[in-house]
Amino acid sequence: MCFSHLWRRGPKIQVEEWGINASQRSKTSPTQHPVPYLPPSHQPLRTQASGSIHSQTPVDTGSSRDQDRAPYPLSIQPQPSNTSVPSTNVQSRPPRDSSEQNLGTTFLANASNFHMENLNYTSNHYAAQKQGNVGWEYLLKAMSTNALHNSMARFDPPKCDANTRVELIHEISTWIEDRNAPTQFLCMTGAAGSGKSALQQTVAEGCVAKGILAASFFFNTADNTRNNVSTIIPTLAYQLGQKSAALRQMIGVAVENDAVIFDQSLKTQIEKLILDPVSRLPPSELASLPYAILIDGLDECTKERDQRALLCAIHDTFLHRRSIFRIFLASRPELAIFEALEPGGHLHEIVHPIRLSDDYDATSDIRLTVRRNFTEIGLRRRWEHAWFTEEDVEAIVAAASGQYIYAATVIRYVSEPRRSPVERLRTILASQSGTDHGTKPFALLDLLYTLVLTTAKEGYEAIDNRHDFLLILRVYLAINAVNLNLCISRQDKLLGLEEGTYESILCDLRSLLVALPNSGHGPGGISRIQIKVYHKSFLDYLNAPERSGSLHIPIPRSIDYISRSCFRSIDSYSLEDIRGGTTLSDADFKVRYKELDLGLLDCAGLLWCSVLRTRTPESDDVAATSFVQFGTSGLEKIHAWVMHPLVHWISTPPWISDGNPRYEFVDLWEKHVGRVFLDRIKVRQVIFIAR
After folding, report:
1. In whole angstroms, how far apart are CA 39 and each of 6, 36, 79, 130?
2. Given CB 3.0 to 4.6 Å as the disulfide criterion, which of 50, 53, 157, 213 pairs with 207?
3. Rounded CA gap, 529 and 341, in Å?
4. Nearest-angstrom CA–CA distance, 194 and 512
5. How many CB atoms neighbour CB 257 within 10 A?
6. What is the pTM assigned to this prediction?
7. What is the pLDDT of residues 158-186, one digit of tens each?
């Protein structure tokens, strides 16, 4: 299934752009806009003969802004006194001062009885006024102060604990400072809660200390000023202007020259507000200009279309023009960035990739962070005795599964100054073992999982509502848990789903899990695609209805779905299909096995028994009911499958490591199902017959 049409749907957010509400917006018609001010190179040329005027270039009056989005008129320059300016009621235009109001051209006031020939008059008043101050003011209105690395809106941002992530920070910092490196773009992808923002903040502060941070932008899905791309280029340009007075003036003039610049493409904005002004700096000033640009959380830009647009703009401008800047971007591996970095993507092989969740083990750093913070809690309380044990630390580290978000959430929860750290730690440990469901210590973590899961669900349902998104996801995870190494594409066929359904279900969940080729290979050398869940706490969240709320799918429901799917697959074969082939040679039997796809029968039989191994009393009832409904003919087919005399002719399938599926079925039945399940079948059979 193709990825290209699977757009991630973000929440629809009504935003008053530019900070101007409907009552303040301009009602100016297109004909009411003033004539644009022309730079000196485009001013009409006055000849030396009697003051006649010939225009060197056509005067472009410009097109009107959309009336509902106009924060300022097309012309934001003072108008020459000899230009006729229609009246306008645009309120956001800067007022003229008294000196400008009296700038009519007057020669030899009150003079008389004199004669003048070949007068050549050129006024540079307005050109001299063009210092970019007006444009800079409009840039300030278009940027997001909340997105800065040191913004008050991000007070107490996440940072790497001392002496943690040392090697990774060194790798990133070394890459940034190596201006001769073949790549200009570092993309760090990682699961939700893997510490991407903490790394970005730590690296940003390190770049500030070294004097090399040119600009930064931290996306945030809950902040309307930085959950879209409309403010990112003005924000980056503002920070560059703060580093150089010459850049500030040129950026301001660029806005004055094109008052609709903030409505144009990201590529155009980068060129006009950043790259073109930078290219005009003197070599000495260019050499000392900071060059590190940091962008965090691209996945928190709510529109996938905008995510793609920014990646393309970076490629087409900063990278294509080989600018002086080195860009460090961090994001969850959502569809836009995933496709860009994959083979065939426009960023493949031209970026320096860091796969945070796949290539770096943070276990030792998490242990150090937990131990240090727990120790500091005791010091703040002035406790002389140890209030936690190494076993407590190891329990937190084990539950974290290499992801910082769990440990960070635990530390925040335990550190609450108005609560007992001891009691709160006990609550955490009890919740891990499932013995205490009375509190919700992971509210922040649950909020993140709810956000990711809801967004993925809405995105899937917007393009395909044939299946229950949450149920299919839980079924995939349940099959994954029984460790059959069953390829997920095979699962789709077994479950009666369309080919490639797993791609649609999982495409917006890459921050929580990923479909990866297994170390082994299937028939013909084809890799087996299986699900890897990055974070154990995500499974804990899904299994706890008090945490996942309306997103919770009970385990019996997923087992019922798997059981019915397995029985349906088994029932699709006739008894002759299952029993036949006993007189065939080994080679012919293998051909028959492949033609009838008897491997699917093996999958269905063993998967059903494997799922029952993890049963509960509730799931037993559900599975027993499905089994009874399966009927006598179904039981006969399972019996024929298990008792086939030629099973040893078929080599061990690639998706099972211990032996033949039929032998495994018998073994599982005897060890984990057996008499208890048969007794339940008898009970359900009586109820079924009575109904």
Report:
1. 46, 10, 12, 9
2. 213
3. 19
4. 10
5. 18
6. 0.63
7. 899 999 999 999 999 999 999 999 999 99
Q: What is the 3-state secondary structure (H, E, C) of 467-499?
A: CCHHHHHHHHHHHHHCCCCCCHHHHHHHCCCCC
3-state secondary structure 582-603: CCCCHHHHHHHHHHCCHHHHHH
Distance CA 645, CA 642 (A): 9
Cα separations in angstroms, 104 against 83, 99, 107, 226, 413: 10, 10, 10, 45, 69
Pick the residue with more confidence: 89 or 662?
Answer: 662
Between CA 441 and CA 46 the distance in angstroms is 77
Looking only at the bridges linking them, the beta strands covering 53-54 and 45-46 are antiparallel
Taking phi over 0 as left and psi of -120 to 50 as alpha, with beta for the rest, 281 belongs to beta
Integer angstrom CA distances of residue 375 from 154, 364, 365, 448, 596: 26, 17, 15, 28, 64
Q: Residue 89 has what DSSP assignment?
A: -
What is the rounded CA–CA span in Å between residue 359 and residue 338? 16
Cα–Cα distance, 414 to 370 (Å, whole number): 11
How many residues are listed for the chain in this entry?
691
Buried/exposed 101-111: b ≥16 CB within 10 Å, e otherwise: eebeeeeeeee
Of 548, 455, 552, 460, whose CA–CA distance to 505 is shortest? 460
Instruction: Please tell me the predicted confidence (pLDDT) of residue 62.
Output: 38
Residue found by looking up tokens 């004669």 in the block: 115
pLDDT confidence tier of residue 45, bands split at 50, 70 and 90? very low
Q: In angstroms, rounded to a whole number, what is the distance separating the alpha carbons of residues 325 and 170?
A: 19
Between 110-119, 133-142, 516-525, the lowest mean confidence (pLDDT) is in 516-525
In angstroms, rounded to a whole number, what is the distance separating the alpha carbons of residues 226 and 142? Answer: 11
Residue 347 is given by DSSP the state T
State the pLDDT at residue 107. Answer: 53
For residue 216, the cross-strand partners are 294
